[in-house]
Amino acid sequence: MAFATSRAEASKGGFRLSMLIYDTRFRAITLQVVALILFLLFIGWLTDNVIRNLDAKGKDINFGFLWVRAGYDIEQTLIPYTNDSSHGRAVIIGLLNTLVVAFFGCILATVIGVIVGVLRLSNNWLISRLMTIYVEIFRNVPLLLWILLTFVVISETMPAPAAFKITPAILESRAALEGIEAQAGGNGFWSRITGLQTLSLPFFLWLLALIGISASAWQYARSRLDAGKAALIAAIPAVLWIVAALTVFSPSLSPVLADSEASAIGPTEPAASKFFFDSIALTNRGTNVPAPLLDRPLGGTEIVSVPVNYSVLAVIAVIIVSVLANRSVIRRANKLQETTGTRPTTWWISLLILFLPLILLLVALGLHWEVPAFPVNDEGVSQGFNFRGGIQVMHSFTALLIALSLYTSAFIAEIVRAGIQAISRGQSEAAAALGLRPGRTMKLVILPQALRVIIPPLISQYLNLTKNTSLGIAVSYLDLRGTLGGITLNQTGRELECMLLMMLIYLTISLIISSGMNAFNSAVKLKER
Amino acid sequence: MTTAQKQLQIPGEIAIEIRKMNKWYGQFHVLRDIDLTVARGERIVICGPSGSGKSTMIRCINRLEEHQSGDIIVDGTELTNDLKNIDKVRSEVGMVFQHFNLFPHLTILENCTLAPIWVRKIPKKQAEETAMHFLTKVKIPDQALKYPGQLSGGQQQRVAIARSLCMRPRIMLFDEPTSALDPEMIKEVLDTMIELAEEGMTMLCVTHEMGFAQAVANRVVFMDQGQIVEQNAPKEFFSNPQSERTKLFLSQILGH
Ligand SMILES: Nc1ncnc2c1ncn2[C@@H]1O[C@H](COP(=O)(O)OP(=O)(O)OP(=O)(O)O)[C@@H](O)[C@H]1O
Ligand SMILES: [Mg+2]
């Protein structure tokens, strides 16, 4: 309508050339056309210049090198690769390495960032101050330093794989200890409790931490739950800490042994031991984690030389179906609430739907874990120089992931805090006056408004994290920058091609992330103000 | 206490009872020994100079602020740290704020149904019917599907009143409901409040609209420096103030 009338008016007055500049209806278009022409001229001049210079040096633009043998090794690869593979495949390996860090980094940074950001608003003085310190430390030191520091710390402080070995000397000590224990009547659970080293400084610190954490949990829970539930929540850290105390502070030797006897026997365990039920080993070479193996795999195929694993596809499919099924359960709960007012309890149905099919599928596929371990000979003495089995995750990956996540989480925490604070106190007061509890208020009133403020800067942080993965070069993590923009570039001398390709790939990743997040943003944004 | 305080006869059932209530903000003693009893159906206007603690006092009644000593009993429920009691009191006491505090991301209708659905667990359909009933009562049923940002200040405040009424409260608190409004909008909000008063709602209203006080209040409570200095029936209060501070205050607000 408005457009049509303005057209009619324009034709009424007749068109003069000066209107292109002075008439608000044409001015914007004129300026854009001029800018576009200037921009195209500039690009044309650049391209022409590059081609002339390349010509003068006798070089051409040619991506044929991507099919040539790469000839270099990559430590960590998600899909099979040898130095006989092509440069193109090395690029894909690098891209996957970039994506895997970016993906887990974004998730980790978001989880930590949201927790830190919310806790920074806590009424608990100690907690909010600690979170402030966290944010300030991580965002005020350059990321490159964090990556290097993390790398140095984890690779320097970890023991060599040899420290995990069971030597003949250890076996001898064990035999000696067993003899003494058999005489003394065993080393049971009670001797662990009576043997608690309650007078030591670590035990005192542990007790302080226990009281602090339980009190904070109590204070936090009490502000939103009734006394019974709050006590239950406060008890959880207490129980965990007691279990930790029994394992950490009880002497590994039976208390019936005097110190002199114990030292005469010698160590009965290797100098270093694995974590998490004896499954994860941290060494100075890398982190050895269990590898998932399938007894009855579904097989796979190759598409454009990228392997496709049917078992993995099946797992993904089951997860997607479960999530969709769960959404329909939630939708039904909403419907029921609309018609009857009461909302059915759905959390256990959701849990069942989300996890049962997945567990059944994994059982059907015969999932088991191959734990990294040293092979042992008949006497039980460890053989070899490093762990066998499992997956060795390089420290370069771990360091890059940890440093990137912690660094970015500091920024995300600030974004989350700002987003929540941008919502006026009046909103939560009005909700409280209507009888809504704090949790509901957060979900129904604060978050829907805060997300609108949080998401745009959050997109920038995800893009930053993704691009910052290229700093992995500092710890020799071979991502896209390390393969395509590093070794491949140096070996082939195709600087221009490599740089163009790399820019194109980063640009594509960034555009995919930001368009996805923008779609999410327009789904949650306020319809009217 | 130096001023003569006339002990008023409180008729009927007691809705709110405040006894020797004190509150501090850190070192600052905001409320001193507040004693106030409100009968069911009574309309009370609270006035006093800025910073005298009027808002703080009525916000203590639905525990938006915590008092440190003394008792507050609302409809037989004492306000303590017990969340169950707080929930109970809040579901019976409605509150209207100076700056409306509507939820900008929800439509007018959703603003009115949010708490009934999630707190009272009323089916959506029924909650919407109730909401439309009260929106009709405050004379804006045609705005139900708009967002708060699209309404005038007076309309927003009437929505805020309707939103509170949807919880079917037995007591309503108003904290300067008209002082953020232009003069021509003040009347439409006051009319709504007068209508509510005529239906017998128990009301506590912080306001400087003395015309409203004279028209509907059973009692005017005057506060200064965190104390209730004087309380009296409106006629007596305006024609024959007891304390010097009341006289000074009345000469200031009625003077201009
Ligand atoms: N959160 C707070 N922290 C510290 N002091 C506060 C806080 N809220 C209010 N006060 C102080 O308490 C006193 C009473 O405040 P209150 O808002 O109750 O006054 P009021 O009578 O409602 O004033 P007005 O008419 O300006 O709204 C004021 O001196 C104010 O500065
Ligand atoms: Mg006030």
Describe this structure in words.
The complex is a heterodimer of chains A (529) and B (256). Chain A is built from 18 helices and 7 strands. By secondary structure, chain A is mostly helical. In chain A, strands 1-2-7 form a 3-stranded antiparallel beta sheet. In chain A, helix 16 packs antiparallel against helix 18 and helix 17 runs antiparallel to helix 18 (495-524). Chain B is an alpha/beta fold and 256 residues long. In chain B, 38% of the residues lie in helices and 25% in strands. The two termini of chain B are 30 Å apart. Mean pLDDT of chain B is 90; it is low at 1-7. Magnesium ion is lined by residues 54-55, 175-176 of chain B. The site of adenosine-5'-triphosphate has 11 residues of chain B, from strand 2 and helix 1.
List keywords for this structure.
heterodimer, A: 529 residues, mainly alpha, MetI-like fold, 4 domains, two-stranded antiparallel sheet, disordered N terminus, B: 256 residues, alpha/beta, 6-stranded mixed β-sheet, 4-stranded antiparallel β-sheet, 9 helices, 38% helix, globular, binds adenosine-5'-triphosphate, binds magnesium ion
Chain-wise SSE layout:
The complex is a heterodimer of chains A (529) and B (256).
Chain A: H1 2-13, H2 19-22, H3 24-57, H4 87-120, H5 125-139, H6 143-157, H7 168-184, H8 189-194, H9 201-222, H10 227-248, H11 259-265, E1 281-282, E2 287-289, E3 291-294, E4 300-303, E5 306-309, H12 310-340, H13 347-365, E6 367-370, E7 391-393, H14 395-421, H15 425-433, H16 438-468, H17 480-492, H18 495-524
Antiparallel strand pairs in A: 1-2, 2-7, 3-6, 4-5
Chain B: E1 14-25, E2 28-39, E3 43-47, H1 54-61, E4 69-74, E5 77-78, H2 83-92, E6 93-96, H3 108-118, H4 124-137, H5 153-165, E7 171-175, H6 183-198, E8 202-206, H7 210-216, E9 219-224, E10 227-232, H8 234-239, H9 244-255
Parallel strand pairs in B: 3-8, 3-9, 6-7, 7-8
Antiparallel strand pairs in B: 1-2, 1-4, 4-5, 9-10
Helix pairs in contact in B: 3-4, 3-5, 4-5, 5-6
The complex binds adenosine-5'-triphosphate and magnesium ion (MG).
